[in-house]
Amino acid sequence: MEFAVKSGDPARQRTGCIVVGVYERRRLSEAAQRVDQASDGAITQLLRRGDLAGKAAETLFLPSLPGVRAERILLVGCGREKRLEARNYRKLVAEAARQLEGFGAGDATLFLPELPVRNRDLPWRVATLAELFETTLYRFDAYKSEPDAPRHPLRQATVAVPRRADLRRAQPAVELGQAAGRGANVTRDLGNTPANICTPAYLGEQAEALAARLPGVSAEVLGPEQLEELGLQALLAVARGAEAPPRLVVLHYTGTDAATPPTALVGKGITFDSGGISIKPSASMDEMKYDMSGAAAVFGAVHAAAEAALPINLLGIVPATENMPDGRAMRPGDIIPSLDGQTIEVLNTDAEGRLVLADALAYARQLEPAEVIDLATLTGAAIVGLGHHRHAVMGNTPGLVRDLLQAGERAADPGWELPLDPEYDEQLRSPFADVANIGGQPAGTITAGCFLQRFAKGLRWAHLDIAGTAWKSGEKKGATGRPVPLLTNFLAQRAGRSL
Ligand code: BES
Ligand code: MN
Ligand code: ZN
Fold it and tell me: Which of 77, 107, 359, 372 is 20 to 30 Å from the Cα of 153, by its Cα?
């Protein structure tokens, strides 16, 4: 989607469609008032007739009106005036995008950012609109012989702001929102791509493609021999049962002075999690292609940071392998070494994510980042605890956790903190090795976090368990692109661009 920013009279826009807000009780937004005046009260008349109640995200399509230059008009309900919450603003913007896709208009001018939203300023409203116009119309049909693409896709969205003086701050907001949305879509494409195609090698190739496409981004891809040399034995142990060779993918985004220590994002890249010898039940096992969603979020966030040209340095680290059962696969009871030096007793081969992340965190430490955030579809228990709405967030640095939670709230991509008390960590004691890879049934998300914390010593570190949030099951099965909006917002904060 192409975006432009403009300020001007809604009645005078030569465009495929103008989109204006209408509140309940026949109250008109400023743009709707202008259209009403220009059309001799046509909108007031419609509302009197009861054609639109104005409930949030309700819509009414008008083919045209006298006195209005746009070919079409889309009225969008905004609920009660003065009560527009961020949640409803997002709903009505997404609904406008869906409606526009259905008409013939190839371009539209959107008078939605002028709507006052509780606790949200104009740049937020503009960025949110751009993000939602990118993500709402996403589809994944690369492997359909006959894609069911819309006949008249929306190609150009013009974001209207109330005053000329608003243009200067609206432009970077569009760019940031668009970058967040496109980054999320990159993440969704990778997640939705099945494991026979999206292998560790494929992730390496995608990293190289991304580096070739984006200014400031470079990629390094390490294979099994290099992993052996470096000593990433925990990653190699998980990879042992797989035919597809593992990779460690490292993305570098340099957006500022090379001496500035980077923020590091570490993403779990299990391209398929069968459970290994501790094999999973077969129901819904197809969804374990999404077990590289943390890795996909790293790609999406780096993509977003680079497209928005954020003045920060960023590292993306992705340990990538399948987790498969085989004659060479690691067994329950095996004791494995790790890059960090700690030995690990593998009591369940299905707790593989923390093994590959242990090595990736130790590898990250060698690169001396300012802070590290790992992203992982780590535990089914995260779904039990928080369902599909909030990420589980843990960490050893309160300020970092707070900033991530705040970014999640702003981006409508929220998390919730869980504690990492030492009592939980004790569940990981092993009689034979430094640590066991499982901590028993109680508090499975927290003990996984405690395991990672042991490998994050000396780092400012936070962990997002995205097992419940990275994809949807059922009829609307598909990757969500989360937590890219959270991460983009967080990185924008780090760059001094709060939203
Ligand atoms: N990738 C899974 C976690 C998962 C399961 C995410 C279902 C989303 C949906 C992870 O590797 C795993 O299998 N975790 C185990 C850990 C257990 C063995 C301690 C789990 O959650 O059952
Ligand atoms: Mn597993
Ligand atoms: Zn897994």
Answer: 77
